[in-house]
Design goal:
The chain has 415 residues and is α/β, with parallel strands linked by helices. The chain has 17 helices and 11 strands. Bound molecules: coenzyme A.
Length: 415
């Protein structure tokens, strides 16, 4: 079977998480991704959070599947020459260095344009143009600057970051989409272009509903679906909403049987208006269907604490999976709080390739998260991440370097 990005060659100058997420996705779609790393250390994540001494970390392996790795010191003149050759022969350069690093290396947009006007140059940066454009940024900085932290957590607690890597992996996904769009546009213009995805922009994009609520709050001074309503107070900015549902359908996390010892014995339950009569029947409160204190969504917003306390009395008599089975029969939207242990074992996620077991020559078998995007005509086969410099000779030979030239580059510690 062919792949969507067959024939596309990517010069992967990325490191850590955001950039590698993007290029891994492109590799899964069939692009030939050549990861350029410094000899010796390589991508810093190879050695970070190691669970096996001397072996590429899971941090690295889980972000760099289906790529080839070459070592190259791009600050040495001969290394820069090799980089120039790569630029001439690749379609896309992807990088997520600190602002200005590529320019300091002499790899300016003008330089790239001269070598290959069809090249797409795609970058992740922490911030777009503005006061913070020169800053180095990691995940949690982006979550804070993009509006996620100020709107996450509980009303009486500090701002909170989330476990989902929305700033890193989220921005990598956006960049991949930008690259594919630029490749498509190149079909008609014949030109490359610069593609920028900033981490702050990505987080804000994912927090769109909170900017919606900011404007609602300024107009009406209240947000009826937030836990601060009706007894608490609202300030000038969107408050933290705890586990309240983000939409107009009230929801909450509720304890299930075993919660005393299992930190994940919980279920999320949404009292969607259409499902309200069914909710009442399930918990044995059929009177609430017609009781005017509960009969309409607006009336229920005044009594959410009482409603969810009653629902929890019911969920605490069931395991989260028993509750799921019962609630789903009535089309009541709900979801179990799944631990990573449970997710790792879930057969349906294995069957779809969302969780994949990979074999690695020095690590052995490990689990990874596969392609979240499934295509009927471009399947994804996840193959292990490359060892540092594993494909240096192979790639240089493809670029036209003779064995003698390669030996010379090695002797001069360029590769
Ligand atoms: N050969 C020679 N030099 C190389 C090289 C190679 N193959 N690869 C990288 N380098 C150099 C760079 O040119 C740079 O040198 P300079 O500082 O002299 O210009 C240097 O290595 C380090 O790059 P930098 O990006 O500054 O790394 P860092 O570890 O200090 O910072 C980040 C890491 C992530 C904070 C930073 O890269 C950044 O802010 N990136 C953009 C936002 C981002 O992607 N953040 C999320 C990461 S998950």
């Amino acid at each position: 079977m062919s792949k969507a990005l067959d024939g596309v060659r990517i010069l992967d100058f990325t490191h850590v998480q955001s950039g590698p997420t993007c290029t891994q996705l492109l590799a899964w779609f069939g692009a030939d991704v050549i990861k350029v790393e410094r000899a010796g250390e390589g991508d810093a994540t190879r050695g970070q959070l190691r669970d096996i001494p001397g072996v590429d970390s899971l941090y690295f392996t889980m972000l760099n599947h289906n790529k080839r790795s070459i070592t190259l010191d791009t600050k040495k003149p001969k290394g820069k020459e090799v980089l120039d050759t790569l630029i001439k022969q690749c379609d896309v350069l992807v990088e997520n260095f600190a602002p200005g690093a590529l320019d300091r290396m002499g790899i300016t947009w003008e330089h790239i344009q001269k070598l290959n006007p069809r090249m797409i140059v795609a970058s992740v940066k922490g911030f777009g143009p503005g006061p913070y454009e020169d800053c180095k940024v990691y995940e949690n900085v982006a979550q804070c600057a993009g509006g996620s932290a100020s709107t996450t957590g509980f009303d009486n607690g500090p701002p909170m970051v989330t476990g989902a890597q929305i700033g890193d992996s989220g921005t990598g996904l956006n960049l991949a989409l930008g690259i594919v769009a630029a490749l498509y546009q190149r079909n008609t213009t014949g030109r490359g272009q610069k593609v920028l995805a900033s981490m702050q922009d990505t987080v804000l994009n994912l927090c769109r509903v909170k900017l919606r609520d900011q404007q609602r709050l300024e107009r009406t001074h209240t947000l009826h679906e937030y836990p601060q309503y009706p007894d608490g107070t609202f300030g000038e900015a969107v408050p933290r909403a705890g586990n309240a549902s983000g939409g107009g359908q009230p929801g909450s996390i509720l304890k299930c049987k075993g919660w005393e010892t299992d930190p994940n014995a919980y279920i999320y339950l949404i009292t969607q208006a259409a499902a309200w009569p069914a909710v009442c029947k399930v918990i044995g409160e059929e009177d609430w269907i017609t009781d005017e204190a509960f009969a309409t969504p607006a009336a229920r917003l005044l009594h959410l604490k009482l409603i969810f306390a009653r629902l929890e009395k019911w969920t605490m008599t069931k395991t989260k999976f028993e509750a799921m089975d019962i609630l789903n029969k009535y089309d009541i939207p709900c979801g179990p709080i799944l631990s990573m242990k449970e997710i790792a074992k879930e057969p349906s996620l294995r069957a779809t390739g969302t969780i994949v077991e990979v074999d690695h020559p020095t690590r052995g078998k490990y689990l990874t998260v596969g392609n979240p995007i499934k295509m009927s005509d471009s399947s994804t086969e996840v193959s292990r991440s490359p060892l540092l410099g594993e494909h240096t000779e192979e790639v240089l030979a493809q670029l036209g370097y003779s064995a003698e030239e390669v030996a010379e580059l090695r002797a001069e510690q360029v590769i």
